[in-house]
Every structure is written in structure tokens, then in C-alpha cells.
Write a structure and sequence with these properties.
CATH topology of the largest domain: Ribosomal Protein S5, domain 2
Enzyme class: transferase
Structural class: alpha+beta
Number of helices: 9
Distance between the termini: 23 Å
Strand content: 25-35%
Pfam family, one: GHMP_kinases_N
Number of strands: 12
Shape: globular
EC number: 2.7.1.148
Oligomer: single chain
InterPro entries: GHMP_kinase_C_dom, GHMP_kinase_C_sf, GHMP_kinase_N_dom, IspE, Ribosomal_Su5_D2-typ_SF, Ribsml_uS5_D2-typ_fold_subgr
Helix content: 25-40%
CATH class of the largest domain: Alpha Beta
Number of domains: 2
Largest sheet: 6 strands, mixed
Order of helices and strands: EEEEEHEHHHEEEHHHHEEHE
Bound molecules: 4-diphosphocytidyl-2-C-methyl-D-erythritol, adenosine-5'-triphosphate
Keywords: ATP-binding, Isoprene biosynthesis, Kinase, Nucleotide-binding, Transferase
């Protein structure tokens, strides 16, 4: 259970929701090797949580939660995306800003290197939280610029609401209006490296998707998504064959409308007509596979 600390009305806690790519087309490749993408990104109720305890000692990061131990000691150092975000924001604020130290506690509830943007969501949460508690008021344009420098998924995670993501991740547009639906997320426990999956991709590029302005229900959304793909699913299945088992176990759940991998994997999602049906399917999958990380529920409020 998360306790919300605050001082003078400023909350010292920030949610870092999981990002899900409902489809992801690799539409091209830039000269620097980065891939051009077209993706419909949504956010789930599942996520990490970042807490801040102000203090006078230099800022440090502690890891907690189910997956805190997966990120080793070194990962709590300056290479952690949370600390990179904090340092980038401090640099932007300049020497005149009164930036306090203290402790950041990252409650790591999301599996690491799993295609649902855990580290990116954490970095984005750090930008939002520290901009607020340090009273920097950098503004969204500056925060998005910092986010871009931290990773391709960080800008969309900064917004933390559904969006059409293009460019290499930095071009963000409005998503079609989404219907009520439920999601189940399943991760088999094998970390998958994003660069390795992009490298393993074979074949050409996939065109930008044609999307409607809205869907009347989860079934219509699934019908559209079935005509689209995640271009990284096939290469991820080669690197992590269990993804195929996860996809078939999801797809055969009662009421599952479709199953697909998110991002560069290995986490897969199942789309359901409602959060209730998603929760029931998640409970069944968790019972059947104790080693898997399973979550079921609604899209994040406000999408
Ligand atoms: C696959 C996605 O999760 C889809 O949302 C993202 O594009 C990945 O975002 P990310 O993990 O924040 O990626 P970064 O940390 O910026 O990049 C990791 C590596 O993935 C590859 N990469 C990433 C994004 C992109 N558009 N093209 C790429 O080729 C590059 O080899 C890069 O060195
Ligand atoms: N706060 C963090 N949480 C998770 N991983 C982090 C963090 N900081 C640095 N990392 C490093 O980033 C790598 C990618 O982890 P992350 O969980 O962000 O991947 P991902 O879920 O595949 O992301 P994406 O969907 O954006 O590709 C990990 O191998 C880890 O060493």
C-alpha cells in the first residue's frame, strides 16, 4: 500500500504507470540506426511508484518492491534512469535553483527490461516529481526535451496518457478515443534487451496505420488491432520462445479479444471487454503460472 507523503500540499509520491504498445509498426530506419515507429501507446493501472524524502545529504536512490532486487546495487547509482533524470533536471535548473537532496525510493513493481517501459516510466516520474518538489517549473516543452535525451519511451511516459507515438518516440499526437476495456499483462520472467530485439528484426518496413477517430467498444478496437502488428514480436519470440506460450495462454482465456506482445517484449497483453473480465483472467493465469508476473485491470484513469 502506498502512503502519500506531502508537505504544504506538494505530494512527495509519483506514479510511474506501465506503458503498453497496442500495436507497433517499424516504419523505417534512420541513418544513426534508430528505428522510426508508429505505435498506439496506452497506460495501465499497474506501475512503479517513486517516493521522495527530502533531506540535506546529496540525493540517493533506494530500490524496493518485488523487482527492486533485480536491479542490482550498481543500478541504484548514477546509471539508473531515475538518477539520470534528476541530474538532467538539476542541470536545466542551473546553479541558482535551490535543489534539496534526500532520498528517492523507487518501488519497483514492474518487471525489468520487459517492454512496458519500466525504466522510462520511472525516469518520467522523476522529472514530474522533482520538477514539482524542487519548484523548478521547467514547463512541458523543456521537460519533454529532457525526456527525449533520456530514452525513446520517456517522452510518452512523461505524458502518461494514451498517445499516437511516431518518429523514434518523440513525435506524440492524440490517440483515437478509446472504449472501455480491460487489460491483462503477463511477463514470463526473462529479461529481453531492446537493442537485441531491434537487431534481430528481419524483413522490410510496415506502413503507418490508418486509425479511426474512436472505437464504439473493445471488440471494435480489437478488430482494428488485428489488422495491425507489433513488428518486434517475431524477433522477440526468437530470443525468448516463451513469449509464444504466453500469447497462446492469454488468447485462450474466456472473453480474450486478442493477445499481443508490448514494445520489445517479453511482456504480452490480452485485451478484454472490461476490467472485471481481465481481473478474472489474470487470477486464473497467476494460479496456473506461479513464476509469471501477471496483472489484470483497467486502463489508467484519464486516458
Ligand atoms: C520498443 C519501444 O519500447 C516502443 O515503445 C521503444 O522504442 C524503446 O524505447 P527505450 O527502451 O526508451 O529505448 P532507448 O533506451 O532509447 O533505446 C534502446 C535501443 O533500442 C533501439 N531503438 C530504440 C528506439 C527506437 N525508436 N529505435 C531503436 O532502434 C536502439 O538500438 C537503442 O540503442
Ligand atoms: N529505473 C529503472 N528501472 C528499470 N530498468 C532500469 C532503470 N534504470 C536503468 N535501467 C536499465 O534499463 C534497462 C531496460 O529496462 P526497462 O525496464 O526500462 O526496459 P523495457 O521495459 O524493455 O523498456 P522499454 O519498453 O522502454 O523498451 C534494464 O536492463 C536496466 O538495467
Amino acid at each position: 500500500m502506498t502512503t502519500v507523503a506531502s508537505s504544504g500540499g506538494v505530494a512527495f509520491v509519483e506514479a510511474a504507470p506501465a506503458k503498453i504498445n497496442l500495436y507497433l509498426h517499424v516504419t523505417g530506419r534512420r541513418a544513426d540506426g534508430y528505428h522510426c515507429l508508429d505505435s498506439l501507446v496506452v497506460f495501465a493501472g499497474a506501475g512503479d511508484v517513486l517516493h521522495y524524502e527530502p533531506g540535506d545529504a546529496p540525493l540517493t536512490l533506494k530500490l524496493a518492491g518485488r523487482f527492486g532486487a533485480v536491479l542490482d546495487e550498481a543500478a541504484a547509482g548514477p546509471d539508473n534512469l531515475v538518477m539520470k533524470a534528476a541530474n538532467a533536471l538539476r542541470t536545466l535548473a542551473g546553479p541558482q535553483a535551490t535543489v534539496r537532496g534526500g532520498t528517492l525510493v523507487l518501488e519497483k513493481n514492474l518487471p525489468v527490461a520487459s517492454g512496458i517501459g519500466g525504466g522510462s516510466a520511472d525516469a518520467a516520474a522523476a522529472l514530474r516529481l522533482l520538477d514539482r518538489v524542487w519548484n523548478i517549473q521547467a514547463g512541458q516543452v523543456n521537460l519533454l526535451r529532457l525526456a527525449e535525451g533520456l530514452g525513446a519511451d520517456v517522452p510518452v511516459c512523461l505524458l502518461s496518457h494514451s498517445a499516437r507515438m511516431e518518429g523514434i518516440g518523440e513525435v506524440l499526437g492524440a490517440a483515437p478515443i478509446l472504449p472501455e476495456c480491460g487489460l491483462v499483462l503477463v511477463n514470463c520472467g526473462q529479461a529481453v534487451s531492446t537493442p537485441a530485439v531491434f537487431r534481430a528484426r528481419e524483413g522490410g518496413f510496415v506502413p503507418r496505420a490508418e486509425l479511426p477517430t474512436h472505437w464504439d467498444g473493445a471488440r471494435e478496437l480489437a478488430d482494428t488491432l488485428q489488422t495491425l502488428e507489433n513488428s518486434l514480436e517475431a524477433p522477440a519470440c526468437v530470443l525468448c520462445p516463451t513469449v509464444e506460450k504466453v500469447l497462446s495462454d492469454l488468447a485462450t482465456q474466456p472473453e480474450c479479444l486478442m493477445a499481443r506482445m508490448s514494445g520489445s517484449g517479453a511482456t504480452c497483453f490480452g485485451l478484454f471487454p472490461s476490467a472485471h473480465e481481465a481481473e478474472q483472467a489474470a487470477a486464473r493465469l497467476a494460479d496456473a503460472h506461479e513464476a509469471w508476473w501477471v496483472w489484470g485491470g483497467a486502463l489508467r484513469e484519464g486516458v
